Amino acid sequence: MSTIDATLQSNQQKAKQYVTKVYNATEQRNPHETEFLQAVKEIVGSLVPVIARHPEYMNSGILERLLEPEKVITFRVPWVDDQGKVHVNRGFRVQFNSALGPYKGGLRFHPTVNESIVKFLGFEQIFKNSLTGQQIGGGKGGSDFDPKGKSDMEIMRFCQSFMTELYQHIGPETDVPAGDVGVNAREIGYLFGQYKKMCGAFEAGVLTGKGLGYGGSLARTEATGYGLVYFVQEMLKDNGLDFKGKTVIVSGSGNVSIYAMEKAAEFGAKVVACSDSDGYIYDQNGINLDTVKELKETGDERISAYTEKHPSAEYFEDCTQIFSIPCDIALPCATQNEINAETAQTMLDNGVKAIGEGANMPSTNEAQDMFLENHILFAPAKAANAGGVAVSALEMAQNSGKISWAFEKVDARLQEIMKDIYQNSMQAASDYGTPGNLVAGSNIAGFIKVADAMTEQGII
Ligand SMILES: NC(=O)C1=CN([C@@H]2O[C@H](COP(=O)(O)OP(=O)(O)OC[C@H]3O[C@@H](n4cnc5c(N)ncnc54)[C@H](O)[C@@H]3O)[C@@H](O)[C@H]2O)C=CC1
Ligand SMILES: O=C(O)CCC(=O)C(=O)O
């Protein structure tokens, strides 16, 4: 073995030991944070070749610092329902990393929200935001409040109570929340109104995903779903394929799913199934998106109601089974860990060709490994769903210039950003010895920018 080879091997071993040591310490420190540990394991596992080539990251404790949020805020959110009954929920904001800019990331209102969920989302957000090429750090927040079945006034009172505490921790140059599951334009409106009241100032750039009349950006609503399809289109094109004539399945029926279905259909695909947390619908004629929008965007209805308008469609209880339908392209856009090893095996047996993750961490690490081992085209969440936050950053730019861009301008920028993320992730994968592996490539490309900025800013 040459001296160079021996040095490389020794660096690789040291890097592996370092990553394992840091992961074990994280596990010990956060033993019950299953989702956070899952996200950490996936990311740090792919950083070994980077650390081996850049031992300076090890020496300056980059990973140790990156894995500990800069600040975690937990607070009580009391509110009164329409019957006068008092409820108390828990609010969170994890300000994970500000090396690249103000903390940026959505708020999730869902009964499953806890510190582990918010930390996994905030951690992933650091790398995703870095990949967009914009000046945004990583953060995430939310509450275990369940908006399902609540009246408009209850939602408003909850949002006001939530912001009454949160306002002092955020700001256009500090931390800029947006929507996520259970938080869409209506909730952002109530949150913004309360922020304005608490601060006594109209600071449009404090939240993104706002209504168009008071500082929102055209195309933000569509951005995550459209961006996902733009990214997958790049991946397909690189492999001599495209959406045209393909059978597509999209889980969920919320913001991301709806606009992923819209763009996939526009690109000539036939989307045959979507779901909500109760069950899924299968329409062999292709999902009628106007009906889904009517049920989910305008109304507050269950996806099962789709079959009332389209009797030829079928409804099945158990949303997890949506991926048992054979398809060419699967776009999981509902929630974390919706695809486990068993589901992945079914998809492989059914001949799936490509997967694009619209939701955050929809595949377990085991499922992800199975897709990679079987050479399925796989677009991981932090790259493929970055279009939403990218357009949020464009919304911040418009707010700071007090201008509004045309839909076409934002959409064109979104397409460029998604192409760049694809190219940069492919390049990083190839530079670090895993050509074609977008999981490793996006982790590495996202990491290097953050690690370099942290290094230049000193040990803080
Ligand atoms: N809204 C955004 O801009 C972004 C969202 N994401 C991620 O995309 C995913 C979906 O978010 P949104 O569409 O914004 O939320 P949303 O609140 O608009 O919709 C969520 C949808 O998923 C359904 N759902 C929940 N649990 C489910 C389950 N177990 N199986 C099937 N359906 C289920 C709900 O019924 C609802 O239709 C989340 O993982 C979120 O973190 C990622 C990037 C940006
Ligand atoms: O637009 C944003 O700031 C948040 C988007 C988000 O939460 C996500 O990318 O998961």
How would you characterize this protein structure?
With 460 residues, the chain is α/β, with parallel strands linked by helices. The chain folds into 3 domains: 3-67, no CATH class; 71-204, Rossmann fold (3-Layer(aba) Sandwich), CATH 3.40.50; 221-384, Rossmann fold, CATH 3.40.50. It is 50% helix and 15% strand. The strands form 2 sheets. A 7-stranded mixed sheet has the order 9-8-7-6-10-11-12, sandwiched between helices. The radius of gyration is 22 Å and the shape is globular. The structure holds 1,4-dihydronicotinamide adenine dinucleotide (NAI) and 2-oxoglutaric acid (AKG).
List keywords for this structure.
nucleotide-binding, 460 residues, binds 2-oxoglutaric acid, 5-stranded mixed β-sheet, Glu/Leu/Phe/Val/Trp_DH, Rossmann fold, 50% helix, alpha/beta, NAD, binds 1,4-dihydronicotinamide adenine dinucleotide, 7-stranded mixed β-sheet, Glu/Leu/Phe/Val/Trp_DH_C, 3 domains, Glutamate dehydrogenase
